[in-house]
Amino acid sequence: MKLSGKVALITGSGSGIGKAAALLFAKEGASIAVSDINLSSAEQATEAIKQLGGRAIAIRADVSDAGDVDMMVDKVIKELGGIHILVNNAGIPGENLPTIESSVEHWDKVVRVNLRGTYLCSRRSGQWMVSNKAGKVLNIASIVGLAGFVARASYGPAKAGIVNLTQTLAVEWAKYNINVNCIAPGFVMTPLDGDLIRSGRLNLELIEKRIPLGHRAQPDDIAKAALFLVSDDARYITGVTLPVDGGWLAYGDVCAK
Ligand code: NAI
User: Fold this and answer.
1) Which pLDDT band holds residue 256 (cuts at 50, 70, 90)?
2) For residue 257, what pLDDT band results from cuts at 50, 70 and 90?
3) Is any ligand 1 atom within 6 A of the Cβ of residue 187?
4) What is the pLDDT of residues 190-218, one digit of tens each?
5) Which of 74, 104, 187, 202 has the most crowded Cβ, counting Cβ within 10 A?
């Protein structure tokens, strides 16, 4: 098992990618703090881990609220004995409107949850990791933070900020034996984009045509890359953003069949 004896705090792990990572890390021997703004989904994921024979606690916390983050981290340290792994996964999508029609309130909310949330959780968990001279931080950004996407003027910049925060913390904390990395998923089958697809703000057919591997990712595809990056197999990797996108960013051809 790759994570025996480790404690992993995964934000937003009541659903989607975070839940898949929580289940996979638990199978690899980690104790899991399942944290989410939605307590009942966190409790359900915790129950699923316990049914696999794993150890987990559920915590309700809003990652954009500094008080909630302090409470969450204190609880993990008290009840599970430390924080060896932090996955900053909690996130919300943008409203996918043309920028001139978008709202400032939505910009603030998207930046607060995605970017400020990643900063707050890293800062607070980093205090424990720095004093223990060990840790793995994994951020979840997006391909939308690595290129220009139409109508994503809040989500894209928030995710791009996470990519730079990854580099900043990686160089600042390297001397404490803390690895900080990031995954930029492409399009993943989770509830996150569901509303945008149902309302027609994202076109599923066009998306799948544009992906060289021909289909969206399953949450587990992201979780498996996450496991690698938080394990000792990746001990010499820090400060990188790994696209897990079915080849989306590599694709430059719109002409040939
Ligand atoms: P999801 O909607 O299934 O899960 C996100 C979880 O975060 C939910 O359980 C939600 O309750 C929680 N959450 C939302 N706001 C929160 C807050 N303020 N505090 C704590 N928890 C909060 O979405 P999914 O797809 O699993 O997304 C996970 C991460 O992956 C997000 O950061 C998202 O931006 C990113 N991502 C997702 C992609 C996709 O296609 N689904 C593509 C690229 C990145």
Assistant:
1) low
2) low
3) yes
4) 988 787 788 888 889 999 999 999 999 99
5) 187
Would 207 be classed as within a structural domain?
no
Tokens of 119: 């900063």
Residue 236: how many CB atoms within 10 A of its CB? 7
How far apart CA 83 and CA 9 sit, in angstroms, is: 7
For residue 114, the CA-to-ligand 1 centroid distance in Å is 9
Q: Say which CATH number the domain at 53 has.
A: 3.40.50.720
Residues 6 or more apart in contact with residue 169 via CB below 8 angstroms: 122, 126, 137, 178, 180
> Which domain does 66 fall in, by range?
7-187+218-243
What distance in Å separates the CA atoms of residue 166 and residue 25, rounded to the nearest whole number? 21
For ligand 1, the distance from its centroid to the CA atom of residue 63, given in whole angstroms, is 11
Cβ of 15 below 6 Å from ligand 1: yes
Which atom of ligand 1 lies at the shortest distance from residue 144's CA? 43
Residue 110, in any domain of the structure: yes
Q: Is there a catalytic annotation at residue 251? A: no
- What's the number of domains the chain is made of? 1
Q: What SS3 class is residue 87?
A: strand
The model's pTM is 0.98
Per the DSSP assignment, residues forming a β-bridge with 52 are none
CB atoms within 10 A of CB 154: 26
**Closest C-alpha residue for ligand 1 atom 24:** 16
b vs e for 26-50, b when ≥16 Cβ sit within 10 Å of the residue's Cβ? bbbebbbbbbbbeeebbbbbbebbe
Q: Which atom of ligand 1 is nearest to the CA of 36?
A: 21
pLDDT of 101: 97
